[in-house]
Amino acid sequence: MLSILEIRRQVEAGVLTPREAVAKALVSSRARNPDLKAFAALADDDGAFPEAGPLAGVAVGVKDVVDTADFPTELGSPAIYGGWRPKADAAIVSRIKRLGGAVIGKTVTTPFAYLDPAETVNPRMPNRTPGGSSAGSAAAVAAGLIPLAVGTQTGGSVIRPASYCGVAAIKPSFRLLPTVGVKVTAWTLDTLGLFAGGVADLAYALQAISGRSMEAPSDPGALRFGVTTMPHAGERSPDSEAALESAAKALAEGGAKVIRVDVPDAFGEADRLQPRIYEFELFASLEWEWSAHRAELPPRLAEALQSGEGVSPDAYDEARAAARRARLASKDLFSSVDILITLSAPGPAPGRETTGEARFNRLFTLLGVPCVNVPGLRASDGAPIGIQVVAPFARDTRALAAAQFLEQRIATLL
Amino acid sequence: MLSILEIRRQVEAGVLTPREAVAKALVSSRARNPDLKAFAALADDDGAFPEAGPLAGVAVGVKDVVDTADFPTELGSPAIYGGWRPKADAAIVSRIKRLGGAVIGKTVTTPFAYLDPAETVNPRMPNRTPGGSSAGSAAAVAAGLIPLAVGTQTGGSVIRPASYCGVAAIKPSFRLLPTVGVKVTAWTLDTLGLFAGGVADLAYALQAISGRSMEAPSDPGALRFGVTTMPHAGERSPDSEAALESAAKALAEGGAKVIRVDVPDAFGEADRLQPRIYEFELFASLEWEWSAHRAELPPRLAEALQSGEGVSPDAYDEARAAARRARLASKDLFSSVDILITLSAPGPAPGRETTGEARFNRLFTLLGVPCVNVPGLRASDGAPIGIQVVAPFARDTRALAAAQFLEQRIATLL
Fold first, then answer.
1. Neighbours of B59 (CB within 10 A)
2. Alpha-carbon separation of residue B387 from A83, A244, A255, B138 (angstroms)
3. Residue B142 host element (H or E)
4. Per UniProt, what is one GO molecular function of this protein (chains A, B) (predicted)?
5. How far apart, in whole angstroms, are the C-alpha atoms of residue A162 and residue A139?
């Protein structure tokens, strides 16, 4: 699969038409999907896609919790939403189409974007989980079927599957991409994200879709990188610790200022209370499903809903106050460093009975700060290990510039 | 129509069954609706409503921008959404049902909750607008058909129609009532609200639906009331100015501390920029309708969308920064008073060619603070004039207590 930037170069040079580029993605997606199970729905024909615009020629997969007028939207729950057809496209789908992008299909999500595994295969490690909940988006890009996919992250559902599948991804600042028409599971957490083969593609796509400049600063190596293992997030695999060390070393060797930092205590407290916020909002968000279709909900989701029903408004408010304290503390932290570098996940992808853990992600989702997964490093057995780049709120451009610099530095190690 | 509190008293005393109470509301709603046009859809039978819970016996109308699995949801736009049937109930609908409330129908909204008038009649002044956009919710309660209705406010769509129709209403703090399943028109502004015959009913219903205590403090008369005509909001009718003076006098005569206050300059600036935020988010929210159904959109909405398409992210960010400054300024203001008292609208209901103006509401929606419309006062021609009670963010209980005190004081004038 060509990168987004290469597709655009060839289209602008007149050596590739948007229709050809999209048709190629559709053919390979159709061929591989029976094994990979990355798409919940795929377009039948390739005649109706746009021919012009900054995303013309770019085939896009959209997570199946995002409303589409042209495809079913089953939320990973055929039992409840089988064949469900929304009336309207979600805001991000309309936007991508207007920019010339070709939405060729819906990518597999875990049920209601929660922790019960989907059947998608990790193209890099077929016996491991692709991660969740944006399993299909990560896998479709990792398999080279499409150059761009849309996912959502409420805990760690963009950065974690990107790490496990070895692709680049960004969870932008909260609300940078409007979630209108995306199934709500937690309204203060749900965030749209993008997957692509590399960081430059992410920057190009995010600039087009958000309408905001994502131009990199002239010297991203001049940024101060704060490295942390996030002790409050719990254990890391030895391979992952080594990967983070390699990344830090590569940055320093590239001339960047690399500082070991401790994260503030308020981070640990907010991280500990994040599930309370998620479960309270999850219960309110899925109260209809809980009332009308309880028996058809998968076990981990049902357990979380049961737990959420028991969270009192006072307990929820207390957790939200802890989140506000952590947001203030992050401002202090980001006065001494420009970027945080940590792991994207506690280790490489675990087995298929799980979707892995969001321990390195959920705090940053709660803070609303931009996070980028930079792929390239691997465990001793070849499993991808992602490095997570985190910037202050609304500094998505800085996050992408730092991630691109890190990506280049990691390339020198390979 | 009995009040919610009276229905509950009679149900608990065993002199009224929930089924009887709901059947009565349904019969009168069916009888009056051909003239009043307050309901876009009404239940066919009354057999399936809940029989137990804190809202049992309470017939509820829900604005037709709120998803319902049992009724069509047409968003005031039969041209685009005619017969549209969502899969799931919105969060607030599921919650009301679980509390025993009987959702007997969908109330008329202006198209997409914007400014183009709906055909609903103002029961108090048939030649005037009922206000918008929650026209049917205000009218159905004002006509005594139902004791409780759900509306939404993005600019002034709860408080304004309540003022014009002479009913009580609350626009709670932003996010107190989850908007999951409510059509998004502006994600930082859209707020669910409630309409009822009086303030005590609002407090009872909001406590049940939010799960939060709304117990009034023992002496609401001890609150400091700051009175303002909100000069930045522009002209007021003489009748309305006189009504505000009467309200202030009644409060003072009741022993409350009444202070004339100037609102901070930051309020004027944020108010001036509010349309920029609304239109930017409106365009992103309705991009599908704009792309796929432009010719079927009504004129004022189409004009706002055209304007919204032209708002740059930088201009939007600038307006959001002004909103943040106004939120900070409101904290200062609320250190010297506990409650703000102002008008709910610039005057009594104008003619039917408009839905009136949100000049006295949109700033408070932008700030996210709780607002209550207290009815009772009238213009010289008998048209209702509402007084608006505003409290700091998350002080919904205080807003309701102050409103109830004002309601009692106004009753002494009548």
1. 31
2. 49, 61, 64, 16
3. helix B135-142
4. catalytic activity
5. 8
Using the Cβ of B318 and the Cβ atoms of chain A, whether some distance falls under 8 Å is answered with no
Of these residues, B29, B77, B133, B330, which one is catalytic? B133
Apex CA A30: angle with CA A29 and CA A33, to 5°?
75
Q: What is the pLDDT averaged over residues B392-410?
A: 97
Contact A206, A413 (CB under 8 A): no
Q: Which DSSP string corresponds to A199-241?
A: HHHHHHHHHHHH-S--PPPS-GGGSEEEE---GGG----HHHH
The answer to whether B63 is a known catalytic residue is yes
Alpha-carbon distance of A170 to A207, in angstroms, equals 12
Q: What domains sit in chain B, N to C, each tagged with a CATH number?
A: 4-210 (3.90.1300.10), 220-266+320-411 (3.90.1300.10)
Q: Is the pLDDT assigned to residue A46 strictly greater than 70?
A: no
Helix (H, G, I), strand (E, B) or coil at A100: coil
In the 8-state DSSP scheme, what is residue A153? E
Q: What is the pLDDT of residue B384?
A: 98
| Mean pLDDT value across residues B108-116 | 98
d(CA B381, CA B414): 15
**In this structure, what is the dihedral angle of CA atoms B199, B203, B204, B210, given to the nearest 10 degrees?**
150
A178 at the B interface (CB within 8 A)?
yes
Distances in whole angstroms, Cα of residue A181 to Cα of each of A65, A91, A149, A288: 9, 6, 17, 17
Residue type, A184: V
Residue A334 tokens read as 């980001």
* Residues of A known to be catalytic: 63, 133, 157
CA atoms within 13 A on the CB side of A205: 36
Which CA distances in Å does A241 have to A155, A200, A237, A353, B21?
Answer: 22, 26, 6, 24, 66
Is the backbone peptide bond immediately before B380 cis, with ω within 30 degrees of 0? no
pLDDT in tens, B302-351: 999 999 999 999 999 999 999 999 999 999 999 999 999 999 999 999 99
Residue B76 tokens read as 């005031």
Nearest to A284 among B81, B180, B212 (CB): B180
Structure tokens at B112: 């997409």
Rounded mean pLDDT of chain A?
97
Determine the residue type at A376: G
Identify the band that residue A1 occupies on the pLDDT scale cut at 50, 70 and 90: confident
